[in-house]
Amino acid sequence: MNALSTKPILLTKTVLMAGIAAWMSIAVFNNATDPGTNRYLLGLMLEMTLLQDEPNGLGAGLLWRAWSSEVAPPLLWGIVAVQIAIALYLWRGALTFGAAAFSGDRVALEDARRTCIRALTAFMTLWIFFLCGGLWFGYWMKQGAVQMVHMTLLIMSVLFIGFMADRRGERPEEA
Fold first, then answer.
1. Looking at the domain assignment, is residue 108 inside a domain?
2. I need a labelling partner for 144 at 20 to 30 A (CA). Which of 59, 70, 105, 169 fits?
3. Is residue 62 part of a domain?
4. How far apart are CA 49 and CA 71, in angstroms?
5. pLDDT in tens, the chain (175 residues)
6. Is the separation of the CB atoms in 95 and 108 below 8 Å?
7. Which domain holds residue 160?
């Protein structure tokens, strides 16, 4: 028997990492095959169009921060490049963690855990960047659903990092 079959928590962590890697890969695929949607949303945010159209002057004091929507296409492709790197890093974490868990090699498992935590930290950083960028452009006032996705992913990232760092249930004496 291998460590993966005797320690269900290791399987759970492997599946979680693979699931996050798959989610990020799908996000990359969606951004690459339907760039128009995100270019449009980025353009609205960067130009602050929704705030300019606000009849009650909501966010009017922030409008000096607006950028041209011409920045949206290169920004989107920059984001896609970062997302590709993060997706690959997450896959690396998932595969190395699963292989180490299967082998039962404690040193390999700790190395893989560090890889997973670094990959998840990159994932978390992406959502912090989106939240800060969105706050700069006032997207929370008119694009609350987008902000909630970013906030949810940030919260999930923190929880994933904590789960991957937690070693309880992995040691033989805890079987």
1. yes
2. 70
3. no
4. 14
5. 566 556 889 999 999 999 999 999 999 999 999 999 989 989 989 999 888 888 888 888 989 999 998 999 999 999 999 999 999 999 999 999 999 999 989 999 999 999 999 999 999 999 999 999 999 999 888 888 889 999 999 999 999 999 999 998 886 554 4
6. no
7. 3-53+67-170
